[in-house]
């Protein structure tokens, strides 16, 4: 796996012996399949525990969301690696499952584009702040008037920005309704392992996307609540994370942006209250330094999250392209019943 390279014969397992793991109902799995499944699930559980913060202030921060998107990237890469290790031919996969996967992947790509749009708007607001900081370098009345105008521009930009994620609730609800995928192949041990793994991928993907959508929309309307059967080794870690996020409080602010807004309000108030020249220079300069620091922190955080969203987009896209490539290679297959070649329509 991408995050675990230990051979199947290792004697020590940090999350318990995978050969004693609970496996998909009705399955008789080989030791190799049990190991692959347990390795994936333990890796997922570890990632979920890292997201479960002890501080409410960490939830809905850009750094937390970047860590969440990183987990999605790693998890999807792990699935791709697991599929390769299963050596399960695409021709054995149920066509309904393939259609479902391709439909889901398109929706995930659309969601990533909308997240990128939200982050791009925040970056555009940073240009307004840079102009304000330039004018705030001087205490002359003329420059302060321009600075005040720029600070007003930041407030207007944030309040008037158009959010594209508010329409995600129906999409996420639909994806949640598709958690129970059809079997890859009837009575296939490998297929059952893949379905067991894909359930985990879908749950975590849906939940993290719903958290980001709620944060960007400033509302918990998109937040999903999912009950996980205890047959999954990562169930407890997910339940704790979900409880942690749901109890974090308001979804009306993004932590770093909220800190930026506070600095802008304080400076704006000071400038407006001291246009007569009675500016307290030291206090004013300290506030300018605070604004510069918060602006830089926000920019770095947005850039980091943007890179993680872009990486997830490419992971999903590459997985989709790989599957389509395999399907094209399998377009013409041997019809064992007639001994003739038949064409599979995509």
From TrEMBL:
List the signal peptide residues. Answer: none
Determine the domain of life of the protein's source: Eukaryota
Keywords of the record: Coiled coil, Membrane, Transmembrane, Transmembrane helix
Q: Tell me yes or no: is Membrane among this UniProt entry's keywords.
A: yes
Transmembrane regions listed in the UniProt entry:
193-217
Keyword Translocase listed? The answer is no
| GO biological-process terms attached to the record | root development; shoot system development
| Coiled-coil ranges (or none) | 281-308
The name of this protein is Protein BPS1, chloroplastic-like
Gene name for this UniProt entry: LOC111473268
């Amino acid at each position: 796996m991408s995050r675990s390279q230990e051979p199947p014969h290792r004697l020590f397992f940090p999350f318990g012996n995978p050969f004693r793991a609970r496996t998909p109902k009705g399955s008789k799995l080989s030791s190799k399949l049990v190991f692959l499944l347990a390795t994936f699930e333990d890796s997922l559980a570890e990632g979920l525990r890292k997201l479960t913060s002890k501080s409410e202030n960490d939830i809905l921060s850009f750094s937390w969301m970047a860590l969440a998107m990183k987990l999605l990237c790693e998890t999807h890469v792990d699935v791709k690696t697991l599929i390769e290790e299963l050596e399960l031919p695409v021709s054995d996969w149920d066509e309904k499952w393939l259609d479902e996967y391709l439909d889901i992947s398109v929706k995930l790509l659309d969601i990533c584009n909308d997240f990128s749009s939200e982050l791009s708007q925040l970056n555009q607001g940073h240009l307004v702040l840079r102009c304000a900081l330039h004018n705030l370098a001087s205490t002359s009345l003329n420059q302060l008037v321009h600075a005040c105008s720029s600070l007003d521009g930041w407030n207007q930009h944030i309040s008037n920005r158009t959010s594209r994620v508010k329409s995600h609730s129906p999409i996420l609800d639909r994806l949640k309704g598709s958690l129970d995928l059809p079997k890859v192949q009837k009575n296939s041990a490998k297929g059952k392992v893949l379905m067991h793994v894909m359930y985990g991928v879908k749950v975590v993907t849906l939940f993290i996307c719903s958290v980001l959508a709620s944060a960007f929309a400033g509302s918990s309307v998109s937040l999903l609540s999912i009950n996980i059967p205890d047959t999954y080794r990562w169930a407890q870690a997910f339940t704790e994370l979900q409880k942690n996020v749901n109890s974090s409080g308001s979804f009306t602010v993004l932590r770093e942006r909220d800190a930026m807004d506070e600095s802008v309000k304080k400076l704006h108030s000071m400038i407006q209250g001291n246009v007569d020249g009675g500016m307290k220079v030291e206090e004013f300069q300290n506030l300018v330094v605070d604004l510069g620091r918060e602006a830089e922190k926000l920019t770095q955080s947005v850039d980091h999250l943007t890179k993680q969203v872009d990486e997830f987009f490419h992971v999903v896209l590459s997985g989709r392209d790989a599957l389509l490539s395999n399907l094209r290679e399998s377009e013409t297959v041997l019809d064992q019943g007639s001994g003739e070649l038949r064409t599979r329509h995509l």
